[in-house]
Design a protein that fits this description.
- A hairpin with an 8-residue loop joins β1 and β2.
- This protein has one domain.
- The protein has no helices and two strands.
- A two-stranded antiparallel ribbon has the order 1-2.
- By secondary structure, it is an all-beta fold.
- The two termini are 18 Å apart.
- The radius of gyration is 13 Å and the shape is elongated.
Length: 37
């Protein structure tokens, strides 16, 4: 499970939600890139 900031409505920073998201397998002609900071 990964984390993502999602915007579900128009607005300022209060419209952003920190959510858990499922990462599925890449489809045809897609790649997955791991990024670390």
């Amino acid at each position: 499970m990964s984390k993502a900031i999602r915007v579900h409505e128009y607005g300022g920073p209060e419209a952003m939600r920190w959510e858990d998201v499922e990462i599925g397998d890449p489809g045809a002609c897609q790649v997955r890139i791991r990024h670390r900071a």
